[in-house]
Amino acid sequence: MNAKTTAPAVPADGPAGPSSPGSSSRSSPRSVHRAGRQLHGGRLTYTILILFTAGSLFPLVWTAIAASRTNERLAQTPPPFWFGGNLFKNLKIAWTDANMGTALLNTTIVAGSIALGTVFFSTLAGFAFAKLRFRFKNVLLLLVIGTMMIPPQLSVVPLYMMVAKLSWTDQLQAVILPTLVSAFGVFFMRQFLIEALPTELIEAARVDGASSWRVIWHVVFPAARPAMAVLGMLTFVMAWNDFFWPIIALTQNGSPTVQVALTGLGRGYIPDQSVIMAGALLGTLPLLLAFVLFGRQIVGGIMQGAVKG
Q1: How far apart are CA 144 and CA 148, in angstroms?
Q2: Residues 6+ apart with CB under 8 A from 68
Q3: Element holding 13 (H helix, E strand)
Q4: Would you call 266 exposed, middle or buried from its count of C-beta atoms within 10 A (0-12, 13-18, 19+)?
Q5: Residue 40 phi/psi, 5° resolution?
Q6: Which listed site, 20, 205, 222, 229, has its alpha carbon 20 to 30 Å from 305?
Q7: pLDDT: is 33 or 281 the higher one?
Q8: Which band of pLDDT confidence, cut at 50, 70 and 90, is reported for residue 23?
């Protein structure tokens, strides 16, 4: 008896059907190419970006235009929309009348000290709340976050009484010391370090015999560097533009900051708006210069933190 063996039928798409290894290998490079190619915005995207950029730059440009005009021209209708010839004259008047050199130096000291102190102490407190174990940790964290809900105006009277009792009125430490740490900074650093700092890295440093300060200096600070850069930038800008507490604790003839010094510009029966705008422009230029010099490092730190996250 002759036994006939028949081979199993093979589908037309291959042994594994449509999802065969050959077909997946053929489509894989295309999918990888699509996933790895750079996306480009269309005309609508660029139009929206240009509009937002123009809207963001308009206040600064208008300040420069107003500073280059006379007070009489600014009072006319329609207002000027291009630069005049009185910019350097108004800048000189604002620099002299407001003692802008001393004000800029004081503001740099105040903003720099507040930024450094906030970054340092907020990183330490954020690390403690994120990785250390101690009693009442959650309760203390809730208390810190709860202070963010208290309006700053409620603390002005007791704070001023304390400053006056210490004889710190019209001195820079009256503005620096009360704001060396912020609840937002502590919460911000705590949230960042929870994800960016592995607990195993801290335990490995402990096993190697590292002390608490060595762990903070060689492990915590390098891991928190992107968030520290962002927090330092935000704090510096906020301290530079702060007006409410400095106008209470400082005077124009003592140790004024830029915002306090600007209140003395353009005084008279008719305020000189062009000189006021010139002073505002002088107070804004250092921030723009700092961003031009350190903007790439700040953005790089933000992107580094985003990639790590």
Answers
A1: 7
A2: 83, 84, 85, 86, 87, 90, 274
A3: none
A4: buried
A5: -120, 135
A6: 205
A7: 281
A8: very low
CB–CB of 175/249 below 8 Å? yes
Pick the closest to residue 255 from 153, 102, 112, 27 (CA basis).
102
Distance CA 6, CA 31 (A): 39
CA 52 to chain centre: 19
Pick the closest to residue 220 from 233, 202, 235, 208 (CA basis).
Answer: 202
The tokens for 142 are 């809730």
Return the CA Rg of the chain. Answer: 30
Whether residue 78 has a cis bond before it, omega within 30° of 0 = yes
- Sequence-distant (6+) residues with CB within 8 A of 276 are 94, 262, 265, 266
CA 172, 237, 302, 150 torsion-angle sign: positive
308 contacts 196 by C-beta, under 8 angstroms: yes
The one-letter code for the residue type at 34 is R
As a whole number of angstroms, the distance between CA 148 and CA 48 comes to 34
Q: Quick check: helix, strand or coil at residue 306?
A: helix
Token pair belonging to 252: 């124009």
